[in-house]
Design brief:
Four copies of one chain form a homotetramer.
Chain A lengths: L9 E5 L12 H13 L4 E4 L11 H15 L5 E4 L5 H13 L4 E4 L8 H14 L6 E5 L1 H4 L5 H10 L3 E6 L5 H12 L7 E4 L6 H7 L3 E4 L4 H12 L3 H18 L5 H11 L17 H22 L1
Parallel strand pairs in A: 1-2, 1-8, 2-3, 3-4, 4-5, 5-6, 6-7, 7-8
Helix pairs in contact in A: 1-2, 4-6, 8-9, 9-10, 10-12
Chain lengths: 311, 311, 311, 311
C-alpha cells in the first residue's frame, strides 16, 4: 500500500464530490472525474476536503465515495482523505476506515477554538496518537477557513513531535514568508524535512514554488494550470511558469471567491464534462445568470490567451 | 410515541455522556444517570448536546447511546436528541435515526458562519424541511458557543415559517429581554406560541421564569436546584425560588466556567454516584487538585446552607 | 464647498499616509502623493481609511494630515475622510473637524460586534444623526476586515432611513450579486439611488462595473489601472477594460495579501517616487528581501506586458 | 509621584465615567464618585477602562476627566489609566499625557487580531518601548472582550522582557489555573514577581485570592463587597470572605451580563447617590422596566441577607 511521506511532490487535486441533480452521490461521475484529474497531471488526489463537501456526507456516503475513488485510482497516485473533526474518537475511526480502504494518509485541520502555540501542539500530539503512528497525516493550515493561525514555531514543534506528520497543506494568507521560514528551519536542522504543498486555489503558486513549496494541494476548474506551472518551474523555466499562471489567473481569481468558489468550480467541471451535474448539497451557494455570464466570458478570454501563447 | 410540542414545560436536563476511565461508552452508568435525573425532577432529557460530547462520539456510538437512554426512560419523559451539524444530509439521517429510536424531537444550533436575519431564516427553513415536518425541533440559541446571534425578529420568522419548530433553547446572554419580546410577539399574535426553556446552566433561572420561560433545558451537577426553583416559581412562591437558587448559586457559577464546566459537572455527578467515572473524551479539560479543592469547599458550604434553610 | 452626493463616479483613491523613515508625518511627500494620484486619474481621494493607518495617528496628526491634503487638492476633487470608531461622540467631533477642514464627506465602517439587521440599521441611524444630517457619509461594507456582514436588506433600510448616506464602499467578498441586488432595489423603487464604489484593491473591478458599480474606491500601487479600466468600461469597451485589468492583475493579486498589502503598496509608491519612504508605523508588517524580489519581478513582467499591449 | 509597581494590592475599582442625562461629562458626579469608591475601600482607581466608556470620549474629554479624577484623588490612592488602542503612536501620546497628569501607570489590552505567542510578545515589547520604560503598565488579559487568548508562557515572556510590565489584570475565563501557573513560574524563578488583580466583576474573587491574586481590579455597584472579601481573606478568614461574597453574588451575577452590565452598574451607582445620572453614551444598552424591577428585587434580597449576617 502506498503511504504518504515527506517526499511527496507535484499536484494533489482537492477533488470535488459529484452529486446528481437530485443530490445523490454520483459514482459514474466520480469515475470520469478521477480520469479527468489524472489526465491533467494530478500526482495525487485529496478527497473529503472542505471543498469536497465532506460535512454534507453521511458517514456511510463518505466511506462509499472514498472507496470508489481509491478503487478507480487503482494505485496510480496516492489518495489523501480529510479527517478533520471536533472529537478524536470519530476522527480515529474515520482514519482507520480510510486507511483500510487504501488511503495514503489523512488530512486534519485544527478546530476553530485553538489559539496558543501550546494548544496547537497538544492538539496535534493527540491527533497524531489517536489516528495511529502508522497513519501519515497532513497538517492543514488554513486560517481564513478555520480562524486558527498556526505560527512557524508551532509547526516546527508539531513536525518534530509527530513522526507521522509528513506534509503541510499551506494556505495561510499571506504565507510566502512562512514557507521560507519552514525551509530555513529545515536547513538549520531545527525541523525534519516535510512536504509543503500550496493551497489557496493556486493563486500564489509561482511564488510559493519559488519559496520552496513542493507543489500544490488545492482545486481549480483547470487543474492543468497547476500541473503546467509546476512542470515549468521544475524544469527551471520560471518565466514560462508565470506566463501560464497569468493566462489562468483571471478565472482562478474569480473562482477563489469565498462561499461561491465551489459553485464556480463545479460549474466549470460540469461544463468540461468531468462531472454530470454542478449540483451542490445544501447548505450551499447557487450561481446567478450574471455569475455564469461572467464565467463564460472569462473562459472565452482565457482560451484566446492560451491560443495566443501557443502560436 | 411521544412528540415534543409547544406546551413542553419543566426541566429538560442536558444529559452528560458517561465514559469509563478508559474512554469507552459506559452503559451501566447511563442507566444510573437516567434514574438520577428522573428522581431529581427531570421532566425531559436532552442527549447529544454540546455538553453531551456529541462530536466526540462515532456515529454508531451516538445511536447506541441514544437508544439505550430511550429504552431506559421507557416513555416516562420525552427525550430530545442533538442533531446540529454542518450538512443537511447527515443531519436528516441522524434525525431519522433518532426519531426511529423513539426520540421526541431534535435540537439544532446554527452553524457558526451565519450572520444576517435572512441567512438564519433560510437555514432553519432548510433544516425544517430536511428533517421532515413530522419531526419537531428545538432551536438552540447559544451565541457564546456558536458565535451566532439570532435576533427576536428572526426567531419570529423561523417559528412562523416552520410548524415543526416547537421550542427555543434560550441561552443568549444577556437574554432576559429576549424572552419578554418573544412572549410579547405571541401576545400580539405575531408569533405562534412556543415552549421556551432556559439554558446557561440555570444561572438566570429565577429571572427567566419571571419573564415567561416554561422551565429550563440545561445541565448542572445538582439538577434538583432547577426542578425546585421551577416548582416554587410555578407554585407562586418567587422568594422560595430565589432562596433555593441562591443556595446553589456559588457552585452553579463555578460550574459555568467555559471549557472547564463539563469536567466540573462530571466530577460532581461521579461524586454523587450518578456515574462511575468523571472521564471526558479528548480533547477536553482536566481538573487540577486545586480545582477539586474548590469544588469540595463549595459543596460543603452549599450543604450547610441547605441544612440551614431546611431548619 | 464640495459635498459628496449620490452621483459620485470614477476612482476615489484610498490614500496612504506618508511617513518619514523615522516615523514622522511626511507632508512634502503628501504633496507629491496628491499630485501622483490626480495625474493618474483619481476623481476623488479618501484619507484616514484602514489603509491610511488612521488608528496609528494621534488626533492632532489626523487633522494636520487631512487639512494638508485638502489644501493641496484645492478643490480639484472631493476628499472623503474616514471617521470609523467605537463611540459616537468622538466620531461626531472628528466628522465636524473634517467637514470644517473642507472634506466632502466621511466614511464609517461598522464596529465589529454588530450582527443582526436591526443592530446595523440602528447603529447607522445613530451615526447619521450624530455626524449631522448635512454631513454626507459613505457606508463601508468590508466584512473581511470588520467581521460584520451587512445584508442587502439592511443596506436598503440604512439608505432609506438616512438621507446623508450617499455612497456604499463595496468590499463584501464575494459581492457581485450584492451590487446587482442593490441596483435592482433601486430600479424597483425600494431604495434611493446611491453611488456604489468598489473596493478590495480593484481585484474584481471589471465585473463590479458590469454589475453597476460607479467606479472604485480602493488603493493600488498603480492607480492608473483603475482609472483606465473605468474609462474603457465607460467608453463601452469591455474587452479593453479586461485587457488592461489582466495586465495589472498579477501584481494587484500580490498586493492584496492581508496584513502585508500596505507594505507592498508603499514600497511600490516609494519606488515610483510618489512618496519618499515606504515606512509603516508600528504595529505593521515589513517586507523581506524575498518579498521585494517577487515584487520587482512582477513589475518587470507587468511593464513588458503593457509595452506589448501598446505596440 | 506615585508609580504603580509589582507590589500593588487590594481593590482597584474600574471607575465608570459619569455623564449628565444629556450626555455631557459630569464632573461634579466625578467628585462624588471618587469619594464613594474611596469610602468603600478602594486602594486604587482605574479610569478609561472598557467599562469607563473610553472609546466614547473625545481626546480632550479623556484628558479632562482623568485630570479631574487625579486632582480629586489627590494622591490618596494610585490612578491607572486605560491606554489601549490600535496604534502605538497615539497610545504613546495618551500615555505621556496621562503620566504627566499624575497617573500611576497605564493599562493596555491586546488588539483583537493577535494570535500566536510570538505576536503577543512582540506587540507588548513594542508597547513597553513606545510608552517609555519609566511608565509602568498593566497587561489586561480579557479574552471574552478582546478575542485574544494570552497563554501563561506568553505572559512569562512579556513580563521578563518588559521591566515596566508590573501588573496583570486577570480576567481570562476560566482562569484560576492561570493564576496558579503564574505564581508557580514566579516561585521557580522563571518569572519576575508581578501584581495580579482579578477582574470579571469579582465573580470568582474568593477563589482567585486563594490562588494567589493580590486583590481585584474590576467594577461592581457595591465595591464594598470586593474590599470586604479582600479584607477577610487577608485576615485569614476564608469562610467570612465567602459568606460576604455569597451575599452579593446574586446581584454581581446579574450585573455581569455582557452588553447590559454597564447600564446595571450605573443604575445602581445612581440609585446609591454616587453619580447623578445613569446615562450611557451611544452606542449603549438601556434598561427596561422589567430589568429595573429585577435589580430592585435583588437589592432588596441582598440587604435582607446582609442584615441577617450582621445580626
Amino acid at each position: 500500500m502506498m503511504r504518504l511521506n515527506e517526499q511527496a511532490r507535484g499536484v494533489f487535486i482537492i477533488a470535488v464530490t459529484p452529486f446528481t441533480d437530485s443530490g445523490e452521490l454520483d459514482l459514474p461521475s466520480t469515475d470520469r472525474l478521477v480520469e479527468f484529474y489524472l489526465e491533467r497531471g494530478a500526482t495525487g488526489l485529496t478527497v473529503l476536503g472542505m471543498m469536497g463537501e465532506a460535512p454534507k456526507l453521511t458517514a456511510s456516503e463518505s466511506l462509499t465515495y472514498v472507496e470508489h475513488v481509491i478503487e478507480r485510482v487503482a494505485g496510480r497516485v496516492p489518495v489523501v482523505a480529510g479527517a478533520s473533526g471536533a472529537g478524536l474518537a470519530p476522527m480515529a475511526e474515520l482514519a482507520r476506515q480510510m486507511m483500510q480502504a487504501g488511503a495514503a494518509g489523512v488530512m486534519v485541520a485544527p478546530p476553530s477554538h485553538l489559539r496558543s502555540d501550546d494548544q496547537l501542539v497538544n492538539y496535534y500530539t493527540q491527533v497524531g496518537q489517536a489516528i495511529g503512528r502508522d497513519t501519515p497525516f497532513v497538517l492543514q493550515d488554513f486560517p481564513l477557513a478555520t480562524s486558527v493561525q498556526i505560527p512557524v514555531q508551532a509547526i516546527v514543534r508539531i513536525v518534530n513531535d509527530n513522526p507521522n506528520c509528513v506534509m503541510l497543506k499551506h494556505e495561510d494568507w499571506p504565507g510566502l514568508e512562512k514557507i521560507s521560514a519552514l525551509r530555513q528551519a529545515e536547513a538549520e536542522g531545527r525541523m525534519r524535512r516535510i512536504s509543503i504543498l500550496a493551497g489557496n486555489g493556486g493563486l500564489f503558486l509561482p511564488e510559493e514554488l519559488g519559496r520552496g513549496a513542493d507543489g500544490a494541494m488545492t482545486g481549480f476548474g483547470y487543474p492543468e494550470m497547476m500541473a503546467g506551472v509546476y512542470a515549468a518551474h521544475t524544469a527551471g523555466d520560471a518565466e514560462k511558469a508565470h506566463d501560464l499562471f497569468d493566462a489562468y489567473l483571471p478565472l482562478a481569481r474569480y473562482e477563489q471567491q469565498p462561499g461561491l468558489g465551489l459553485a464556480i468550480r463545479k460549474y466549470v467541471l460540469a461544463r468540461r464534462g468531468a462531472i454530470s451535474s454542478s449540483a451542490i448539497r445544501l447548505p450551499g451557494a447557487k450561481l446567478s445568470p450574471a455569475d455564469i455570464g461572467e464565467i463564460e466570458h472569462l473562459i472565452e478570454r482565457q482560451e484566446s490567451r492560451l491560443q495566443e501563447m501557443n502560436r
